[in-house]
Amino acid sequence: MGKYFIKKYFEYVLLKIIIVLLVIIIANFIMSISTITFSSSVFFINNNQVIKDSQNETHVIKKNFLNNWETYYYENYRFQLKYHKDLIFNKNTEVLKPTKKQVYFNRIEIESLPKQVKCWVENSLKLDMTRFANSMELNKKQYIFIASGSEFYNVKIIDIFILENKEVVAIAKFNKLLPEESEGLLCNNPYDLVYTKATGLPVRLVAIGDDVHIPITCITGIEYLPNIVAQSQGIKVFTPISNETICNKCSVSGVARIFEATLLYQLFDLEYNKLLDDFVTIGQLSSNFTREQVISNSAINWSYFKFDIRIPEAVVPGKKLILKLYTIDHKNGNEINLVVIFLNYNC
Fold first, then answer.
1. Please, are residues 174 and 200 in contact by the beta-carbon 8 Å criterion?
2. pTM (global) more than 0.90
């Protein structure tokens, strides 16, 4: 009798074990069927970058995780993700399939340019120390400019296409010179310039090659880059010109790439008596502005500014004045990006 109960007990335990194992096997099978995998195709919806999974759901990619992308394939506007956990789930978004239209373009030397475009390129080259992109349309042509921002990088535009009929995408390849190549030498292509048929669309420069994490900057708030008459690393001035004669007021304009968008200015006489001490916030729009020429993901671009300085009534006509533009280093409080312009006051 005791052996009968022992046998039944072991049969009961064995049945339990079999049932548990079956549950585990079935659960793993269901999970393997429903496991979500991610495609590498990235789409743009309302300026958000999204990705589709195997169940046709849409996921918005966090902007602060973009540095976790390890490979970029420009041909199909595709990325390879490093961490899937960096995706936010978002069901209620319609997926737009990217459509590309190839654009034929021609490379052109600066010596062959129309005078207005040549001046535009020469001023674009003055926005040094940054990877800088610019675009302009003239006489049914769209010119696209890209500068490497360093003598240790070559840059070349290798492909252009129109994406979703909303923007022109130009692929710029950056090559970093090896130490033995750069020693005592300047790179052959510190900038590139091409033109294509005018599209009326803004241009987005996409970097591939070496150090693609370095942002490509642009100018904002102004469509055409005029002549730069005075400059420092972070401030480029259009007006006033040096030794310009002014009366009751002086118009100051330019672009700047500065911390917290705060531009400081002071006005002195030749004896360095301080006549004015104030600041402006940059980021205005020029009077003829209609749209940005270049789309940039850089956190700090070259922003337009324009303001008027009223000359104090106590200033005697015939005086020489000194206009000082600058910013403050937020780390140590020192003046940086200094631009000094001499003016003639005669009213």
1. no
2. no
